Amino acid sequence: MRNNSLFRGQLVSKGIKSTLVGLIFSILLAFIKGVAGILGNSYALIADAIESVSDVITSLIVLVGLKIAVKPADQDHPYGHGKAEPLAALVVALALLIAAVIIIIQSIHEIITPHHAPAPFTLLVLVLVVIVKETLFRFVIKIGESVESTVVKIDAWHHRGDAITSVFAFVGITVALIGGEGFEMADDYAALCASGVIIFNAVRLARISLLEIMDTAPPKDIIEKVKEIGLSVEGVLSLEKCFARKMGFDYFIDLHVIVDGKISVFQGHEIAHKVKDRIKSVFPRISDVLVHIEPNDNLNFK
Q: Is the pLDDT of residue 214 over 80?
């Protein structure tokens, strides 16, 4: 049987590495976009830089969440610290909302304040940003899905959100440059549109985090596979109930197993252990299986 703690550690290690890669690139891009936005007179690019700064902050939150989530169970946390992962994801989603509000406020201020059109070189910066951020998204989301980490997947979508805001900024600046006088505010409107996309993603990602915090059942295929394994154990007649919940990187299963009511308590206990061991051997992500043994109904107790 695979060591569950070792397996969990490998998953967290992958998540941390992908987050660190994203963190480094976010710092570089935030600096590049901020400088280019100021020198190029583009608030859309400055708004993009703000979004990248929020990427840096949220990546740090992701790292802290992953570090806490991997801690083993203790006396005060008998089920481990896995809830730190979706909680960190929720904080990331809220940070996205705050960043969007800041962009909206500043964009409105820029719209009502006359200013010059952005410089053409800002378009080249945005092309670079879109390429880098979309590449980061594909890299991090692949890891997030492979380790089934909510917070890592949300971190990936943060990169995708940054790429989307850069696309809006590119369109806005292009319109401002082509339109000439009277179109100087096009990139400010683009920043407003980008903030709408950020808000949409933030709400969607917050919902995912809340569902996990509320112990929403995992995908049905996991439940069905657990049932299939349980029924394959000798002595198991049927299953009455099967509940599962995700706790960070781990799953916890509650299983009601029907056995022959005439067998001894010891035999029932042995069957329960076989069910638990077999399920955990197939699913290293399953931290614990609580098996409740029940006698079949076709008995005549006299």
A: yes
pLDDT value at 2 more than 60: no
Provide the Cα torsion 22, 199, 142, 90; round to 10°. 80
How far is it, in rounded angstroms, from Cα 288 to Cα 8? 13
pLDDT score, position 3: 52
Which are the contacts of 211, defined by CB distance < 8 A and separation ≥ 6?
Answer: none
Give the contacts of 168 (CB within 8 A, at least 6 positions apart). Answer: 44, 190, 191, 193, 194, 197
Tell whether the torsion through CA atoms of 277, 223, 215 and 150 is positive or negative: positive
The helix-helix angle for 43-69 and 84-111 (nearest 10°) equals 170
Domains, the chain, in order of start with CATH, read 4-213 (1.20.1510.10), 220-295 (3.30.70.1350)
Task: Give the predicted TM-score (pTM) of the model.
Answer: 0.69
